[in-house]
Amino acid sequence: MAVRRLIPVAVACALAAATATPAQARGTDEPYCATHKCIALTFDDGPGPYTQTLLKTLAEYKAKATFFVIGTEVKKHPKLTQQIAKAGHEIGNHSWDASYLTELTYAQINKKIGDTQRLIQKTTGKAPKLFRAPGGLRNGGVQEITAKFGLLQVPGTTATKDYIKDYRHVDLLTGRALDVAGEGEVVLMHETVKETVQSMPEVLQTLTAEGYSFVTVSTLLEGEELTPGQVYPDRSGTATTAAVE
Protein backbone atom coordinates (compact mmCIF):
# COMPACT_ATOMS: atom_id res chain seq x y z
CA MET A 1 0.00 0.00 0.00
CA ALA A 2 1.31 3.44 -0.87
CA VAL A 3 2.61 5.78 1.79
CA ARG A 4 0.04 8.40 2.74
CA ARG A 5 0.83 11.84 1.32
CA LEU A 6 0.30 14.90 3.48
CA ILE A 7 -0.82 17.71 1.17
CA PRO A 8 -1.61 21.14 2.64
CA VAL A 9 -5.28 22.04 2.42
CA ALA A 10 -6.01 25.68 1.60
CA VAL A 11 -7.96 27.63 4.21
CA ALA A 12 -10.18 30.78 4.32
CA CYS A 13 -13.63 31.23 2.66
CA ALA A 14 -15.64 29.17 0.19
CA LEU A 15 -17.25 29.86 -3.14
CA ALA A 16 -17.78 33.58 -3.61
CA ALA A 17 -20.86 32.90 -5.70
CA ALA A 18 -22.59 30.85 -3.01
CA THR A 19 -25.15 32.45 -0.73
CA ALA A 20 -23.59 30.78 2.30
CA THR A 21 -20.27 29.03 2.65
CA PRO A 22 -20.01 25.63 4.34
CA ALA A 23 -18.13 27.32 7.18
CA GLN A 24 -20.89 29.91 7.63
CA ALA A 25 -23.46 27.12 7.62
CA ARG A 26 -21.59 25.65 10.59
CA GLY A 27 -21.73 29.01 12.36
CA THR A 28 -18.00 29.68 12.10
CA ASP A 29 -15.56 31.46 9.80
CA GLU A 30 -12.88 28.82 10.32
CA PRO A 31 -12.59 26.31 7.48
CA TYR A 32 -13.34 22.79 8.64
CA CYS A 33 -10.30 21.35 6.90
CA ALA A 34 -7.99 23.72 8.74
CA THR A 35 -8.40 21.51 11.79
CA HIS A 36 -9.43 18.16 10.26
CA LYS A 37 -7.76 15.61 7.99
CA CYS A 38 -10.04 15.98 4.97
CA ILE A 39 -10.57 13.97 1.83
CA ALA A 40 -13.23 14.45 -0.85
CA LEU A 41 -14.73 11.31 -2.38
CA THR A 42 -16.49 11.98 -5.68
CA PHE A 43 -18.75 9.76 -7.75
CA ASP A 44 -19.56 10.22 -11.43
CA ASP A 45 -22.22 9.27 -13.98
CA GLY A 46 -25.26 8.77 -11.74
CA PRO A 47 -27.73 8.65 -10.33
CA GLY A 48 -28.20 4.97 -11.08
CA PRO A 49 -28.94 1.47 -9.80
CA TYR A 50 -26.42 1.54 -6.95
CA THR A 51 -27.06 5.06 -5.68
CA GLN A 52 -29.26 4.09 -2.75
CA THR A 53 -26.78 1.46 -1.56
CA LEU A 54 -23.99 4.02 -1.73
CA LEU A 55 -26.05 6.59 0.17
CA LYS A 56 -26.72 4.07 2.95
CA THR A 57 -23.02 3.26 3.26
CA LEU A 58 -22.03 6.93 3.35
CA ALA A 59 -24.67 7.61 6.01
CA GLU A 60 -23.36 4.74 8.15
CA TYR A 61 -19.95 6.41 8.32
CA LYS A 62 -21.33 9.97 8.50
CA ALA A 63 -19.46 10.67 5.27
CA LYS A 64 -20.30 13.46 2.86
CA ALA A 65 -19.42 13.11 -0.81
CA THR A 66 -19.79 14.93 -4.11
CA PHE A 67 -21.87 13.41 -6.90
CA PHE A 68 -21.16 14.60 -10.44
CA VAL A 69 -24.43 13.68 -12.11
CA ILE A 70 -25.36 13.38 -15.77
CA GLY A 71 -28.37 15.26 -17.11
CA THR A 72 -29.94 12.25 -18.82
CA GLU A 73 -29.76 10.26 -15.57
CA VAL A 74 -31.19 13.11 -13.49
CA LYS A 75 -34.08 13.23 -15.94
CA LYS A 76 -34.64 9.47 -15.47
CA HIS A 77 -34.14 9.49 -11.70
CA PRO A 78 -35.30 12.81 -10.19
CA LYS A 79 -36.18 11.26 -6.82
CA LEU A 80 -32.74 9.67 -6.49
CA THR A 81 -31.18 13.03 -7.30
CA GLN A 82 -33.29 14.62 -4.58
CA GLN A 83 -32.23 11.91 -2.12
CA ILE A 84 -28.59 12.72 -2.75
CA ALA A 85 -29.19 16.40 -2.03
CA LYS A 86 -31.39 15.75 1.02
CA ALA A 87 -28.68 13.53 2.51
CA GLY A 88 -26.36 16.56 2.57
CA HIS A 89 -24.11 15.56 -0.30
CA GLU A 90 -22.96 17.99 -2.95
CA ILE A 91 -24.20 17.67 -6.52
CA GLY A 92 -22.00 18.72 -9.41
CA ASN A 93 -22.69 19.10 -13.13
CA HIS A 94 -21.20 16.29 -15.29
CA SER A 95 -22.79 17.50 -18.54
CA TRP A 96 -25.86 16.07 -20.23
CA ASP A 97 -24.35 12.76 -21.40
CA ALA A 98 -21.01 11.06 -21.94
CA SER A 99 -20.12 13.07 -25.06
CA TYR A 100 -16.61 14.50 -25.00
CA LEU A 101 -17.10 18.24 -24.99
CA THR A 102 -13.86 18.87 -26.87
CA GLU A 103 -15.45 17.22 -29.92
CA LEU A 104 -18.46 19.56 -29.91
CA THR A 105 -19.16 23.09 -31.11
CA TYR A 106 -19.35 25.97 -28.68
CA ALA A 107 -23.14 26.04 -28.99
CA GLN A 108 -23.39 22.31 -28.29
CA ILE A 109 -21.17 22.59 -25.22
CA ASN A 110 -23.25 25.49 -23.97
CA LYS A 111 -26.48 23.50 -24.37
CA LYS A 112 -25.21 20.33 -22.66
CA ILE A 113 -23.82 22.19 -19.66
CA GLY A 114 -26.69 24.67 -19.50
CA ASP A 115 -29.46 22.08 -19.81
CA THR A 116 -27.89 20.00 -17.07
CA GLN A 117 -27.43 23.02 -14.83
CA ARG A 118 -31.07 24.04 -15.18
CA LEU A 119 -32.39 20.52 -14.68
CA ILE A 120 -30.39 19.98 -11.49
CA GLN A 121 -31.59 23.31 -10.13
CA LYS A 122 -35.19 22.47 -11.01
CA THR A 123 -34.89 19.00 -9.44
CA THR A 124 -33.07 19.90 -6.24
CA GLY A 125 -33.78 23.61 -5.82
CA LYS A 126 -30.08 24.43 -5.94
CA ALA A 127 -27.79 25.21 -8.86
CA PRO A 128 -24.47 23.33 -8.84
CA LYS A 129 -21.24 25.22 -8.27
CA LEU A 130 -18.97 22.45 -9.54
CA PHE A 131 -18.40 20.92 -12.97
CA ARG A 132 -16.53 17.86 -14.19
CA ALA A 133 -16.12 17.32 -17.91
CA PRO A 134 -16.79 13.83 -19.30
CA GLY A 135 -13.47 12.09 -19.74
CA GLY A 136 -11.81 15.06 -18.05
CA LEU A 137 -11.47 16.62 -21.50
CA ARG A 138 -11.58 20.41 -21.49
CA ASN A 139 -10.79 23.29 -23.80
CA GLY A 140 -11.23 27.06 -23.99
CA GLY A 141 -14.91 26.75 -24.82
CA VAL A 142 -15.54 24.60 -21.74
CA GLN A 143 -13.66 27.10 -19.60
CA GLU A 144 -15.62 30.05 -20.98
CA ILE A 145 -19.01 28.38 -20.63
CA THR A 146 -18.38 27.05 -17.13
CA ALA A 147 -17.29 30.53 -16.12
CA LYS A 148 -20.53 31.92 -17.55
CA PHE A 149 -22.56 29.55 -15.39
CA GLY A 150 -20.43 30.29 -12.31
CA LEU A 151 -19.00 26.78 -12.25
CA LEU A 152 -15.62 25.65 -10.96
CA GLN A 153 -13.95 22.84 -12.90
CA VAL A 154 -13.09 19.87 -10.67
CA PRO A 155 -11.42 17.08 -12.67
CA GLY A 156 -10.19 15.35 -9.51
CA THR A 157 -6.66 14.99 -8.22
CA THR A 158 -6.49 11.19 -8.32
CA ALA A 159 -8.63 8.22 -9.34
CA THR A 160 -9.19 4.56 -8.59
CA LYS A 161 -9.45 4.00 -12.36
CA ASP A 162 -12.65 2.03 -11.97
CA TYR A 163 -13.48 3.08 -15.52
CA ILE A 164 -11.03 0.36 -16.65
CA LYS A 165 -12.97 -2.89 -16.93
CA ASP A 166 -10.03 -5.05 -15.83
CA TYR A 167 -9.93 -3.09 -12.53
CA ARG A 168 -13.51 -3.90 -11.64
CA HIS A 169 -12.87 -6.27 -8.76
CA VAL A 170 -13.88 -5.32 -5.23
CA ASP A 171 -10.53 -6.17 -3.62
CA LEU A 172 -8.58 -4.36 -6.31
CA LEU A 173 -10.71 -1.21 -6.13
CA THR A 174 -10.60 -1.26 -2.33
CA GLY A 175 -6.82 -1.38 -2.44
CA ARG A 176 -6.61 1.33 -5.07
CA ALA A 177 -8.90 3.65 -3.11
CA LEU A 178 -6.74 3.23 -0.03
CA ASP A 179 -3.54 3.65 -2.04
CA VAL A 180 -4.58 6.95 -3.63
CA ALA A 181 -6.18 8.38 -0.48
CA GLY A 182 -4.41 11.36 1.01
CA GLU A 183 -5.15 14.55 2.86
CA GLY A 184 -6.62 17.13 0.50
CA GLU A 185 -7.21 14.67 -2.33
CA VAL A 186 -10.28 14.69 -4.58
CA VAL A 187 -10.79 11.03 -5.50
CA LEU A 188 -12.59 10.27 -8.76
CA MET A 189 -14.81 7.17 -8.78
CA HIS A 190 -18.05 6.04 -10.42
CA GLU A 191 -21.25 5.22 -8.58
CA THR A 192 -22.33 3.26 -11.67
CA VAL A 193 -19.58 0.69 -11.03
CA LYS A 194 -21.04 -1.95 -8.71
CA GLU A 195 -17.62 -3.03 -7.41
CA THR A 196 -16.78 0.53 -6.42
CA VAL A 197 -19.95 0.78 -4.34
CA GLN A 198 -19.22 -2.64 -2.82
CA SER A 199 -15.71 -1.50 -1.88
CA MET A 200 -16.88 1.55 0.04
CA PRO A 201 -17.63 -0.04 3.45
CA GLU A 202 -14.03 -1.26 3.86
CA VAL A 203 -12.60 1.94 2.37
CA LEU A 204 -14.61 4.17 4.71
CA GLN A 205 -13.93 1.98 7.74
CA THR A 206 -10.17 1.99 7.10
CA LEU A 207 -9.88 5.71 6.36
CA THR A 208 -12.08 6.56 9.35
CA ALA A 209 -9.67 4.62 11.54
CA GLU A 210 -6.84 6.68 10.01
CA GLY A 211 -8.55 9.88 11.11
CA TYR A 212 -9.98 11.10 7.84
CA SER A 213 -13.02 13.35 7.56
CA PHE A 214 -15.07 12.80 4.39
CA VAL A 215 -16.16 16.19 3.05
CA THR A 216 -17.70 17.71 -0.05
CA VAL A 217 -15.46 19.39 -2.58
CA SER A 218 -16.79 22.81 -1.59
CA THR A 219 -15.85 22.18 2.03
CA LEU A 220 -12.40 21.05 0.92
CA LEU A 221 -11.97 24.26 -1.11
CA GLU A 222 -12.76 26.63 1.76
CA GLY A 223 -9.96 29.18 1.79
CA GLU A 224 -9.23 29.24 -1.91
CA GLU A 225 -9.75 32.42 -3.91
CA LEU A 226 -11.98 30.81 -6.49
CA THR A 227 -12.58 31.96 -10.06
CA PRO A 228 -15.40 30.36 -12.09
CA GLY A 229 -14.12 28.43 -15.09
CA GLN A 230 -10.79 27.59 -13.48
CA VAL A 231 -9.61 24.16 -12.28
CA TYR A 232 -9.58 23.26 -8.57
CA PRO A 233 -7.92 22.14 -6.41
CA ASP A 234 -5.08 24.13 -7.94
CA ARG A 235 -2.10 21.80 -8.00
CA SER A 236 0.03 23.81 -10.42
CA GLY A 237 3.65 23.10 -9.72
CA THR A 238 2.72 20.02 -7.68
CA ALA A 239 3.08 16.43 -8.87
CA THR A 240 -0.31 14.73 -8.95
CA THR A 241 -1.93 11.65 -10.40
CA ALA A 242 -3.98 12.51 -13.47
CA ALA A 243 -7.65 11.81 -12.95
CA VAL A 244 -9.24 10.93 -16.25
CA GLU A 245 -12.05 8.59 -17.19
TrEMBL record:
Signal sequence range: 1-25
Record-linked InterPro entries: Glyco_hydro/deAcase_b/a-brl (IPR011330), NODB_dom (IPR002509), Polysacc_deacetylase_ArnD (IPR050248)
Species for this entry: Microbispora maris
This protein's name: Polysaccharide deacetylase family protein
Ranges where the NodB homology domain occurs: 37-215
Enzyme class: hydrolase
Record EC number: 3.-.-.-
Upper lineage: Bacteria, Bacillati, Actinomycetota, Actinomycetes, Streptosporangiales
Assigned keywords, A-Z: Hydrolase, Metal-binding, Signal
Alphabetized GO MF terms: hydrolase activity
